[in-house]
Design a protein that fits this description.
Elements lengths: L2 H6 L6 E4 L4 H9 L4 E6 L5 H10 L5 E4 L18 H13 L3 E3 L13 H19 L5 E3 L7 H7 L25 H12 L10 H10 L5 H11 L5 E4 L20 H8 L4 E5 L7 H10 L6 E3 L18
Parallel strand pairs: 1-2, 1-4, 2-3, 4-5, 6-7, 7-8
Helix pairs in contact: 7-9
Length: 319
């Protein structure tokens, strides 16, 4: 606590900000000036590159190092670390006894442990166990960006070029982003769409992997990815019912294919997105039907509105 504030009787909140060298936490470290920036090295294979990025960005920070050598399971082999943010905020609370712990998370963050609801639950857990010794101490875990998308965070940030010095990659090669992991894809697509040239070449493997895994809850990421892809290649969205199969009331697996249109689709260049108003529960049967009839596509998006008429400036009679 600030000594002058203590003398004057003014309560000062002790703040810890979890930083990683990535976009979100870097912006947070610059926009929230009070408190300590904290980096936790828990044996992740990209720790060296993240620490170099923090130093290059000019972020002053303290570090907690966990010795994970000699363990039967190598945590650095995993992209997604179980209980990661819960462990990080617990370490921050244990070593610094803060009132507020900030982490970088935004309005559309899809990670289960980076939502406002989950942070409230973590706050209750930390407060419960801090109370035993600290007489009713309350610990708050939160993000300053619950109401902002990543794009809004960048748009409002004063030094956008500096974001090119951030680092997010699970498998760095010679201290450079690999271009073949989810972290590379998210960072590259985001910055390139904002007009910042990263110099990272994404692999077709990671692009197709993400197109195949996209679900409605990731709609913001889907739009971001497609905006990025259409800069270098054609992107075509194709309906299924009435285009690739007869628009009948038959069960999905018994719908009759329109072979000529399937052949046309398979011969199209660029990325092919199947865009249907079928329900999410029909996804498994739809994929089975598509496989059975040899339909080649890059993504199956099941969030199209069940409208009667679509009026769109890009509509073309491809078939």
């Amino acid at each position: 606590m600030d000594k002058n504030a203590e003398i004057l009787g003014v309560e000062v909140m002790k703040v810890v900000k979890l930083v990683s060298g990535g976009i979100d936490s870097y912006i947070m470290s610059k926009e929230i000036t009070e408190g300590i920036n904290l980096y936790v090295d828990f044996g992740q294979k990209y720790a060296k590159q993240e620490l170099k990025a923090l130093k290059k960005l000019g972020v002053k920070f303290e570090k907690i190092t966990i010795n994970t050598t000699g363990k039967s399971t190598n945590i650095s082999d995993n992209f997604y670390i179980n209980n990661r943010n819960l462990c990080l905020v617990t370490l921050a609370s244990m070593f610094y006894s803060p009132d507020i712990i900030y982490l970088g998370a935004n309005k559309y963050d899809s990670h289960i442990d980076k939502s406002e609801y989950e942070c409230e639950k973590m706050s209750k857990i930390l407060s419960r166990y801090a109370n035993e010794k600290l007489n009713g101490k309350k610990v708050i875990v939160k993000s300053p960006y619950w109401n902002k998308s990543k794009e809004q965070m960048i748009e409002d940030f004063s030094d956008k070029q500096k974001l090119l010095d951030t680092f997010s990659c699970y498998n760095p090669i010679n201290d450079k982003p690999c271009g073949d992991c989810p972290a590379c894809l998210r960072r590259t697509v985001l910055l390139e769409n904002m007009g910042l040239k990263t110099g990272v070449k994404l692999s077709e493997r990671i692009i197709h992997e993400n197109l195949n895994k996209i679900h409605p809850k990731d709609r913001d990421r889907l739009s971001r990815l497609i905006f990025y892809l259409q800069k270098s290649n054609k992107v075509t969205a194709i309906d299924i019912d009435g285009i690739l199969c007869e628009c009948s009331s038959k069960p999905i697996l018994k719908k009759i294919p329109i072979k000529s249109n399937i052949d046309k689709l398979n011969n199209l260049d660029g990325y092919k997105l199947l865009f249907t108003a079928r329900l999410g529960v029909d996804r498994k049967d739809t994929k089975e039907w598509l496989k059975k009839h040899g339909v080649k596509y890059d993504a199956l998006i099941m969030s199209k509105l069940p409208y009667h008429t679509l009026i769109d400036d890009r509509s073309k009679k491809e078939f």
